[in-house]
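re: ur question from yesterday

yeah so i grabbed the chain u mentioned. its 211 aa long if i counted rite. heres the sequnce exactly as i have it in my notes:
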Amino acid sequence: MKVLVIGGNGRVGSLLVNKLAAQHQVLAGSRNPSPENNLNNIEQVYLNLLSDVDAIAESMNGVDAVYFVSGSRGKDLLQIDLHGAIKSIQASEKAGVKRYIMLSSVFALQPERWNESFLSNLTDYNIAKHYADLYLTTQTRLDYTILQPGALKEEAGSGKIDTNVTHPGANSIANVVDTLVSILENNSTIGKVILMHDGNTPIEEALHQLK
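ran it thru and got these structure tokens back, copy pasting raw so excuse formatting
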């Protein structure tokens, strides 16, 4: 497959690009592409979420699947995390891409849970993710999957997660990346919103157990 990763130079995106490249042709989309990082099956491409939908769609020619793993890290929540995400969804439909995988945040679609633990300090971020997720799930015909992990940690991955979680928990970035890769290979995840944190079940098995 030809896969576009929006946010391909970020903490999650750079690892995701390298993992996907073992099986697919990958476009690493960002505002600051690094052509020196072009490797086998990886092409760095310019993609600016501040651009209009038509410009973003041009980056998707021939693409089979889109990942949205971009984020402003609190610096531009409206333009990037909310409106940029929605424009990427609209661009995917305009370009004829069917498969769309969104990295979101735990309980983004459940505002009543935002006062819990670390989420209480992220209200504006949660609002941005909420409306982007809501748009994807209600206003499009894309074959979407939304992955909603809790806090991301820079630590080794275990390859094991819990899904259908009821309480927020920590996630190694490696586990999140491996889950994102597995989602693309598992059509049973289409149309699902998957809450996760590090856990006890191998990733593939956890995805097969989704309700």
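noticed a couple things. The chain is about 35% helix and 25% strand. also The longest strand covers residues 143-149.
anyway ttyl
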